[in-house]
């Protein structure tokens, strides 16, 4: 077969790989209950091994820091108070946090156990090296797709070797091991079994029910196969899995002895994992006709936290992974990290990957409009997922429209310009191929910790997710932007 890069690869190869994806669950559900394959690159990106090793060393330390910050309830309340006034959704979260961890009697305090499943997203900037884009502590999914992307490229290499080699940047590159699906499942199963054993030790477990994992999902969601892959991996480890929306849970949960969480028709729940809850719409139930928006369903989340379950994300984890907390940790000196158990050396390692950030104020706005290099910054609010960033000249327009009471919900962050792939590649979306000459990539590294302790077989590290996009595109989400699924090879 001719693999001249001026020519497209054959439709036979495209169909083969798209069918592999569908067969292995790498898909989005359509409205008519059919599935479409996830967009992907035909060959992996290349990263220098020392850069990758640096990220592997620093990411579990970031998770340790965030895990300990998330349990420092006084600090969360004090440091995020102003942001919560400026952002209504985070204002609601702060209220819930206060209800869970504020001045309450011992019998009513939050009993949930901290299961931090985190994805820390990086870009390898051409000038400054690898830097953090954001922390993801809630709905930090797509680990299963990350592992599947590595397996997809192995399939292309084995089945269509000439195609793979034609689009590979460096013939000497070696695939980076990626066990994101297996390691996340291992961490969740470990935490789930620990909760089950806790109740067995209290002689509470008269039933012979399997350890049970509850995933809270969005109604009518299309990104379900990534979730189901994780569930199957848990089922293979002896864990029963169930799925519910907040609306369903609002009438189906109750309390057992010793703060045991009970789900109607299922029984006892050991672990709760939120793939919903990062936006107001996840708590909005029109049928309830509430005077206070989203009160009932957000109180359902609080009700869960009052019980002895392994939980990700806790309300405090969501606060600790906010953009405002990222900014506070970026601005404070490394010595201050000692409060959360990091040595100075560990703190400096974390600081080495934090990109510059600036709070929004009258002075910052004046500086930005008069003397900043506007293309070197990005303006972010507290939103999760795509569509929450403002770039270039548009930043001034947005800043002009902000009211002073809204300032604390926003931050300026150093814009990252990652290495473009040295050679063009083929992106495949909806079964069609496109030549991309300026592909850049974002790497998300997963970690899993239970009550601060690593619960993977890799010292807390749990694999990676690569999302690539044309450099000309601002929105790189696979699900909501122009991103494509990718994997990593090392040189």
UniProtKB/TrEMBL annotation:
EC numbers for this chain: 6.3.2.3
Required cofactor(s): Mg(2+)
Top-level EC class as recorded in UniProt: ligase
Pfam families linked to this entry: GSH_synth_ATP, GSH_synthase
Keywords: ATP-binding, Glutathione biosynthesis, Ligase, Magnesium, Metal-binding, Nucleotide-binding
Gene3D superfamilies: 3.30.1490.50, 3.30.1490.80, ATP-grasp fold, B domain, Glutathione synthase, substrate-binding domain superfamily, eukaryotic, Glutathione Synthetase, Chain A, domain 3
InterPro entries cross-referenced by the UniProt entry: Glutathione_synthase (IPR005615), Glutathione_synthase_a-hlx (IPR014042), Glutathione_synthase_C_euk (IPR014709), Glutathione_synthase_N_euk (IPR014049), GSH-S_sub-bd_sf (IPR037013), GSH_synth_subst-bd (IPR004887), PreATP-grasp_dom_sf (IPR016185)
Transmembrane region(s): none
Annotated ranges, domain Glutathione synthase substrate-binding: 212-320
Pathway(s) of this molecule: Sulfur metabolism; glutathione biosynthesis; glutathione from L-cysteine and L-glutamate: step 2/2
Assigned protein family: Belongs to the eukaryotic GSH synthase family.
Name of protein: glutathione synthase
